[in-house]
Specification:
The chain is an alpha/beta fold and 382 residues long. It folds into two domains: 183 residues, D-Maltodextrin-Binding Protein, domain 2, CATH 3.40.190.10; 129 residues, 3-Layer(aba) Sandwich (D-Maltodextrin-Binding Protein, domain 2). It has 14 helices and 15 strands. Strands 1, 2, 3, 4, 5, 6 and 14 form a seven-stranded mixed β-sheet that branches. Strands 10-9-11-8-12 form a five-stranded mixed β-sheet. Helix 4 packs antiparallel against helix 13 and helix 8 packs across helix 9. The chain is elongated, with a radius of gyration of 28 Å.
Length: 382
Amino acid sequence: MHKSRLSCVVLLSLLTGVVLVGACASSSSTPTAPESAVSSTKAGWQQEWDKLMAEASKEGTVVIGTGVASDVRNELGKVFRGKYGVSLEFISGRTEEMTARVQAERRAGLNVTDLLIGGLGTTDTVLGPGGLLEPLDPMLLLAEVLDKKAWWGNDLLWVDPDHFHVMFIASPLRPITINSELVRVEEIKSYRDLLNPKWKGKIAFFDPTISGAGKNMFVLFAEGDLGIDYLRKLGEQEIVITRDVRLMVEWVARGKYPIGVGIARDSQRQFERAGAPINSITPVEGTHIGGGSGGIAMLKNAPHPRASRLFVNWLLSKEGQILAARLWGAQSARDDIPTDSLDADALREPGIKYMPTFTLEYQYKAEQYQQIARDLWGHLMK
């Protein structure tokens, strides 16, 4: 080793107690930029994202309350842990059950749950007004999540005006199901075609006084171009009202009631795959669009705030939504997510008018119309 270089190394070793290999390299050596200099070249959001990942890894866990199926929970947890080293712990329960649980935790002075995954319900009507939810706006960091053009309708699908709850699924309902051997598609181009005397006593309608597609359709008719008078006339068609969605699909498939309004798509798909002669129609007046259980909210004073923020941003990213669309079996609220794995009748269509049923505003309207449905159609309910 050159004498001057050796002396430099020895001197530094004595001063620091560490052998700094190459610290006094000759001028011909290429200097390495310090880590701080490298990180300063990154975009501001990237620096914050790197910091968030490190802090989330230290917290190590996100606790999520949800009613989604176990296979969805397991896959989400597997993928997220594999990518970020953070575990997802799930507390299983319906929205109402999770709301009661969170309230009980807070009364006991406990903060156990970080996030809630589910649809419109008491998360919004109870926890939000009760001051138990954290606005998600400040939690969003990734540019691709904040890009409004990436989302259907050019904005994130906020459930409430305070932005506590956002939907990541935006799935249309095919509102009318027909027996294709007894009803031709062209016979029902408009909802008004259901008033044809030909269909009297041949229409089944899912109960509009409880949660479900029947309630959504009742509100769509009442709030849209058709109005209450249309609903009164539809009742005069001697419609049959049921709360048994599987029985309703069976009625249509067998031709007992060849037209069904408000049938859940999952139930219909089972019969379609079995070869039943059924088809779906969306009339010219449009239909509604919902999020099912595909929404997320963050609780105030979450015990794992950094890991929770990381999960929210990842789930709303393109990568997270590709997975979510597959697991939920429904179209993402993002417009840049592949739909190859989804059935054609599960996709949004250009030119169709959609009423959003995932908003808090809609929830309050629906509650009012449930009583109107009882008044108009109570005699038809068994």
